[in-house]
Amino acid sequence: MCCNFRKQATELPICPLFWEEMTDIIIDNNSHLAPHKNYRERFDVTARKENPALRGNAGLLRSDKKPANGKTKKLILVGSPNVGKSVIFNSLTGSYVTVSNYPGTTVEVTRGKGRFYQEVYEVVDTPGMYSLFPITEEERVTRTLLFREKPDVVVHVVDAKNLERMLPLTLQLLEAGLPVILTVNMMDEAEAMGRRIDLLRLSEILGIPVVGTAATSHHGLDLLKKAVVEYVRKRVA
After folding, report:
1. FeoB-type G domain: from which residue to which, for each copy (predicted)?
2. 169: how many CB neighbours lie within 10 A of its CB?
3. Cα gap 110→113, rounded to integer Å
């Protein structure tokens, strides 16, 4: 990837070609287009159809398919504050979670377990962060978790209404060599304000799975689980 990054969390990566593509990905102010009501039909489709990075894995999610191995895998959720990350965490893990301070800090980290298509995952909900170049203690803890705990997959949750401001962190995660799935959350709110996002095109440009969700109404979460399992199995195959 061609982008270089400035250390200020609010600045965009210097990669003109990427940002030119964004004009084709995001279409705003389409008030004449009625918002979609059936989000289950819109989001809960096969991961291969929506994500070119997952194609060529037919049959991976069949109910008779055995897990790749018996080990518990690790999924780390990252994202800015107020993007719905905790809602997604609760949906992935259920009610049995542990909350503790990260060693040597007063920053809380939440952990839980989830089972996706016969695979068991430890799911870690990290403090909000804007950049891999930490400014706050919360960002330092999240950065440490990402590099010390060696996750099988990092799910970056972003707000569809503010996608442009949040993609720099996605690019930083990819530059760092982390296995990333991008979850564009609050799609229902974005569409209600007249915004359309071409998730397929965004996936093609980034080269990673991109999943649209409306987590508060549980739409797109089944697709996210499928994307996680297929992506991790493909990486270890």
Report:
1. 72-234
2. 22
3. 11
